[in-house]
Amino acid sequence: MPGAYKRRREQWVSWCSTDEQSISAQFSSMLWADAVYRLVNETRRSPTKSLATFSGVLAEMIDFGWVADQAIAIRKLVDRDSRTISLRRLAKDIEAHKGLISREAYVCREGWPYDFAAVEEEAIAQLTRGVPVTVDTRGALLAKLAHETFDELSLISSPNARSPQDRIADTVFPALHAAIDNCG
């Protein structure tokens, strides 16, 4: 199971950030186009003549282009085509493979300790003894944050109720799909 989760997660990470058409690349492109549009649009307010203020037709085309670019970008992010890297495809794929995602697999995915409290205690003990801290306190902190995130995904309200076998709650994916549907 951990190997299958690791392979699937690598695919999801690729869709999110490393692929040329990744979701983050799509967001970056959208934000860049928006920033350029806002910069050009700001020149319209300038008292001096500029290319953007000189031609009403050019300004209108810039407006239409910006609106079209943003609409296309949003449509791509929520596209239903299974060949397109989109938020919808990512959510559906994670849901289809949710059986691979246990709390333990999620928390320990980068080699972080499942029992972060034991690492914290050992770090404190080493400091108290006056010796260098040799345990991975950064990994322990990241594991603690991963537990807290998984608490939300699994609807676990108390750290005492955690189990390595916890799974993402059944209500998470319908809510996620509804949020994506509202964008498109």
Task: Walk me through the structure.
With 184 residues, this protein is mostly helical. The protein has two domains: 1-101 and 169-184, no CATH class; 102-167. It has nine helices and no strands. It has helices spanning 2-18, 23-43, 51-54, 56-77, 87-96, 103-107, 116-129, 137-154, 172-183. Helix 5 packs antiparallel against helix 9. The radius of gyration is 23 Å and the shape is elongated. The chain starts with a helix and ends with a helix. The mean pLDDT is 90.
Name some characteristics of this structure.
2 domains, single chain, 184 residues, mainly alpha, elongated, 0% strand
Residue share in helix: 55-70%
Evaluate the radius of gyration.
23 Å
Largest sheet, if any?
Answer: none
Question: Please, what is the average pLDDT?
Answer: 90
Q: How many beta-strand elements?
A: 0
- The H-and-E topology, N to C, reads as HHHHHHHHH
Number of domains: 2
What gross morphology would you assign? elongated
The fraction of residues assigned to DSSP E strands is: under 5%
Unreliable parts: none
| End-to-end separation | 34 Å
- Derived from helix and strand composition plus strand pairing, the structural class reads mainly alpha
Count of DSSP-assigned helices: 9
